């Protein structure tokens, strides 16, 4: 007989099984608390957006748009794309919902799945999760420092110690034009030694050559002029202020003169946060957080001129590193009560008792599908349960229930109407 085909999840896309779910929840909870403290409100945007939003927002010449988008045409003829990153969707929503009229800054955060057609490898998937923070409406460099601090705090609270913030300024539309010409003059003689992508980038967006991960390109860019030495006065002062604020906050940053980040919309500050290279798996996994200022994006996408700054962390990368460091996460609340029943009338009655316990927020495990008391007690024992409730025919007739303390074996019979009170007394 031919064996039946086994379905697999799509390449680079994974199920988040219950053990990993605990890590995901922990990360999300910390982000939620931090967002609340810093005054960020949650936003959910659709997983699909118009393809053009990313083409114009993320940028036509970026790897994301050129190579990594899952795009398709709907039955109605629209071109849509599974969101490869969060910022363009948030900005679209900001414009569409008239958030420009809200008091500034508008602080938004999000958490959810993102999609990029990447070559799957450690820390790089085709479906992954990000948590992002975006601050819209303020030009002041203190915002850049606060965004960096938020992500730094999240990673600290997750127990990471040796963190490195890499920082650069890529100027604005004015000083960047001048720098691009200087960079072009430097790169021109090396044209033929660059990788094919970079040769293309020379024409489309020369800045992106600085981002290339190919060794032969990195060897060339190592000697390239640094934008930081060619910033206009405003960008220079902005960056200087960001550094001063980071120092005030005692955040461990290092200048990374060729950090350009892959996206077209950044202006001025760009940053990445990683674990120090000597930590297990840190190098393979890469940056945990990436972000920067994007003062032109709202305008590019059709809104009013609005400065903004933000970033996003990669949940899967953080989970991998937490595991590599041997951090275990346990389910927050382990049940201490186990409800057993013997006989049909007890089974019926226990359905109601179970619901009463739920209403009182008492965590309880049931085994309604089991009939024998000994097999139910065995499960309770395996789970390390503290108190087992036993309901048999006799107890149902007398309107009573037995509470058995597993450690001592001590049993006590109590009236059914007192069960909640009796349990709460014991769990105190
Ligand atoms: P980016 O949107 O490229 O700036 O990425 C921000 C963060 O998301 C990175 O620092 C990673 O932690 C994470 N990330 C980006 N792309 C992927 C991917 N393909 N798989 C897993 N995590 C990713």
Automatic annotation (TrEMBL):
It catalyses: tRNA(His) + L-histidine + ATP = L-histidyl-tRNA(His) + AMP + diphosphate + H(+). Its EC number is 6.1.1.21. Belongs to the class-II aminoacyl-tRNA synthetase family. Homodimer. One of its GO terms (cellular component) is cytoplasm. The lineage of its organism: Bacteria, Candidatus Gribaldobacteria. The gene is hisS. This is Histidine--tRNA ligase. The keyword Protein biosynthesis applies. GO terms for biological process: histidyl-tRNA aminoacylation. It comes from the Bacteria. L-histidine binds at residues 85-87, 116, 130, 134, 261, 265-266. It is found in: Cytoplasm.
